[in-house]
What does this fold into?
Amino acid sequence: MKAITLVEAVNQALDYEMSADESIVLLGEDIAKNGGVFRATLDLFDKFGAERVLDTPLAESMIAGIAIGMASQGLKPVAEFQFMGFIYSAFDHIISHASRLRNRTRGRLTCPVVYRAPYGGGIHAPEHHSESTEALFAHIPGLRVVIPSSPARAYGLLLAAIRNPDPVIFLEPKRLYRLFKQVVPNTGQALPLDCCFTLMPGDDITLVTWGAMVYETMLAAKQLGETQGIHCEVIDVATIKPLDMEMIIHSVQKTGRCIIIHEAARNCGVGAEIAANLAEHALMSLLAPVQRITGYDTIMPYYRLEKHYMPSVNKIVHTAQEMMEFV
Amino acid sequence: MRVFNLPDLGEGLAEAKIREWYVKAGDSVHVDQPLLAVETAKAMVEIPSPNQGKIANLHAKTGVMVQTGAPLISFHLDEVVEHNQATVVGQLSHSETILENEPDIKPKTAMSTYSKRVQATPKVRQLAQSLKIDLSQVTPSSPHQHITLEDVRAHAKQNHPPLKATANRDIWLRSIPHTSEDLHGARRTMAHVMQSANQQVVLTSLFDDADITALNTPLDGKPRFRGLTLKLIRAMQDACQEMPALNAHFDAENLQRHLFKQINLGIAIDSPQGLFVPVIQNVGSYSDQVLCTKLAQLKSLAENAAFPANLLKHATITLSNIGTIAGRYATPIVVPPTVAIVAVGKVRDKLQWDSITQKCCCHFKLPLSLSFDHRAVTGSEAAYFLKAMITSLAALGDT
It folds into this structure.
């Protein structure tokens, strides 16, 4: 079977589910004839036609609003924002309506919409194209926030997001879009939306991460294992909201140490939520203070400096060593 | 072929003078590599390469003034594999690396098999650390199985085992290849006994040589000292008779010493399993022949590391023959309650001036090291003991 990239896995999941479920509609800027700015929706216009794959005007607020209307009337829209940095004008619709529709109507209406957006830095893009603001959505009750980090998880989690009856913010780490490939059987098998994924088992230290930072974290974990004998347990959170704390706590109770790695700015990031949960529920097991390795509390810099903004393999390795020496 | 024209290097600068070329036609260059330096009306500026490729042609020589927008360099561009990545901004990294298939994506199954760490708050851990208490040895009293501050304090009042190797050292150890083993049997006993002896005894050592030239019975021109161990035992017997203070036990608690007439001689024997000190009870009661048989028996028992426990008890003084491999003197450790041990080094030859015959002649010297517990034995007692041994060994050759 041919190995595919993460962006191809997104395409494969959309293709599979649109074939299986006629109520699914795609909308976004340049997603139809052009196939999307990153080619996530390539060939879907040709296959499913203009009624199901819609090019919209350059108006994110409108994209979000139309999708809510569609979702409340029986369609399952999958809307694409070209970049996460363009999403702010759609906030009102997403926060004031999409997240609340079920509650507002006492369950009579749900809002089965998926808002897809490429997110994160590392591709030498200009302003507004590199930020990681997943925490903004994770704070809102009624939204799910899902971030895959491999072609297989992109496929399985996107299927699950589309099938979910409530709104899902589906953030795709664009730096990983074509960074590696994986064999992803096109079986229509969804992955659970409420659990983390343990990518590497270990006893010494738990590395908790998501999105593109999974890549650096895995490199660091391998390096720590091979050269220092420090065995890391690597957890891909995958679903930022609702957070599967049970699995993270379990791991930290075993290892006694935890580093949270995320690309987003530190202050009030999702890492803070995880650390707070560990303080509440795993304090008795901790052998060292929980550490966060994150972006800085600045605007994501222009691309010449973006490498310095994002957590590096070296930083993870160094922090892990320090933690092992803490006790 | 791509032609690179001189860009506007300031705000509306019309021209620039070429000061230096860093590259020539045929060179391969990469993006951002400095190509040349130019002088504008405002400054010296280095111009970096906009492309990756090979330089086809330089359109102007050093010293020439070039107009903004005029051709500067032609490149043969490296062939770039085009990916349909389409993005209007940025550049996606691209590779053909294949990820392994997903590991266990039913993560909850793994959760049943883990061992919880010791449950304790940081405050409790800090207290335990300051008291050098291993928390895994503390029994939690709280219904939630948390160790409390009180649990640690209660544990501290009892005798607690010392803290294990620190995590720090543990981590370093993991980074280099090595083999680890738990000490057991005689090697483990050695570790315990030596550590405890070293902590208790006030060890003092005295060194000298015995002249054993007379014991030499050469074979094929090479020196040979037959039955040396037997002779050493006899010499120690003589020395104990001369100075009974060293054939004794010392009771540090009650500050008593027990002097013995009978000599129970511990003989330190090395084996791959560790150190053994079997004891020959009352050596004085045996004939040379019987003693030789007993020594031979001990040797064979040592090879099998099979000493019955009663054979390892009640030494009153100890002999250690270290010298068969290398080494002249040593500071052997006295094991309480005994107060003395003699270590014997390797025989060596030595030229010695004989003032009577007015000649140089070869003598054979046996290095002796006597360690004693200075709590129980005085320096002169030890010296008399050593002197008696030396005299006895020299005399034994004459018989």
Q: What stands out?
A: Chain A touches chain B through 57 residues (CB under 8 Å). Chain A has a mean pLDDT of 95. Residues 67 and 97 of chain A are 11 Å apart (CA to CA).
